[in-house]
Amino acid sequence: MTWLVLIGGAALWFWVHPVAGAAFVVAAYALACWWFPYAACWCCHGSGKHRSSSGKTFRRCLVCGGRGSWWRLGRRAARWLGSAE
């Protein structure tokens, strides 16, 4: 129940201070990109395979190379910014 009060207070804070709210959202997304750097492939939905119409055979996904995942957009941006030094 405590987290509901915190979320409600955070929602009120975002309306009162939109810049602080936007900064919080960006920081939360950056933390999520650090904690979960990979996202499921949009083409194979994370399986790494494309099944045939009969469902008996499959081939590897050409978009993700059969891995089933790829770097999230925020993680790719962080890596790019880090390598620019």
Question: What does this protein structure show overall?
Answer:
This protein has 85 residues and is α+β, with helices and mostly antiparallel strands. The protein has 3 helices and 4 strands; from the N terminus they run ααββββα. Helix 1 packs across helix 2. The radius of gyration is 19 Å and the shape is elongated. The relative contact order is 0.13.
Keyword list:
alpha+beta; two-stranded antiparallel sheet; 85 residues; two-stranded antiparallel ribbon; 3 helices
Describe the secondary-structure layout:
Blueprint: H1 2-16, H2 18-35, E1 38-40, E2 49-51, E3 58-60, E4 69-71, H3 73-83
Helix pairs in contact: 1-2
Radius of gyration: 19 Å
Instruction: Give the percentage of residues in beta strands.
Output: 5-15%
Mean pLDDT reading? 76
Q: Looking across the biggest beta sheet, what order are the strands in? A: 1-4
Largest sheet: 2 strands, antiparallel
What letter string, H or E per element, gives the SSE order? HHEEEEH
Low-confidence stretches: none
Backbone shape: elongated
Distance between the termini: 45 Å
Question: Which structural class do you get from the secondary structure elements?
Answer: alpha+beta
Counted by DSSP, the helix tally is 3
Oligomer status: single chain
Number of domains: 1
Residue share in helices? 40-55%
User: How many beta-strand elements?
Assistant: 4
